[in-house]
Specification:
- By secondary structure, the chain is of the alpha+beta class.
- It has two domains: about 140 residues, Bifunctional nuclease domain (Roll); about 60 residues, no CATH class.
- The longest helix is centred in the last third of the chain and has 13 residues.
- The two termini are about 30 Å apart.
């Protein structure tokens, strides 16, 4: 996995734009680049449960899969977020299983070898499993360049390491949350940069991702 960037889970926050939707925030090891991913409520609860932040008595399908994997000696080696298309992240899970071959009679033997399998998965499900298996999560530099939000001293910066201006007050930020994509496209880059700063400070990562996408479109 040397060619990939390892990620850690920074947190999960409720979407400020759409009811029942959450934002999973991942970050690389230094914490300078964060990657917001939109996920559904059930997956958000499952991830939070595995992280020990919810009622431990509640069981999810991901817990059943963990039990199943242990019984059949299946190991989850890694989760890889490998592609981003139209705002949708594509992931795969790398498993390691044991394949056995049995003979008959007195010469009956059991030989086994470890076999790797790569299975496509919804990113939120893959992360929920990674937490339970304590497996690493990776992504590519290309995805970070497309969707990552860069930070310096706790504030977002652009790719040239220039701090974003913060000339728009919070009232404008709150008003913006009700705007359409067409309104966003009409805004200047300076205003978009300021709104991105406020979105991150207020942990509105879904909004930040949309602003970032619009800024990248203009490059």
């Amino acid at each position: 996995m040397d060619q990939f960037i390892r990620l850690a889970i920074r947190g999960i926050s409720l979407s400020q734009i759409q009811s029942g939707i959450y934002v999973l925030l991942l970050e690389e090891e230094s914490g300078r680049i964060k990657l917001p991913i939109i996920i559904e409520s059930l997956q958000a609860q499952s991830i939070a449960s595995a992280l020990g932040k919810k009622d431990p008595s509640r069981s999810f399908t991901h817990d059943l899969f963990l039990t199943f994997a242990k019984v059949f000696h299946i190991k989850l080696k890694a989760v890889v977020i490998y592609k981003l298309v139209n705002g949708i992240f594509f992931s795969y899970i790398l498993f390691e299983g044991i394949e056995g071959i049995e003979g008959e009679g007195e010469e009956k033997k059991k030989k086994s070898e470890k076999i790797e399998h790569k299975i496509d998965s919804k990113t939120s499900d893959a992360v929920a499993l990674a937490v339970r298996f304590q497996a690493p999560i990776y992504t590519t530099r290309e995805i970070f360049d497309k969707a990552g939000i860069y930070f310096e001293n706790g504030f977002p910066i652009d790719k040239e390491n220039e701090p974003y201006e913060t000339g728009i007050e919070n009232s404008g930020f709150l008003f913006f949350k009700e705007k359409s994509q067409q309104d966003l496209e009409k805004m200047t880059e300076r205003d978009l940069n300021a709104l991105l700063n406020h979105a991150v400070i207020n942990e509105c990562y879904e909004l930040a991702a949309k602003i970032k996408k619009e800024l990248d479109r203009r490059e």
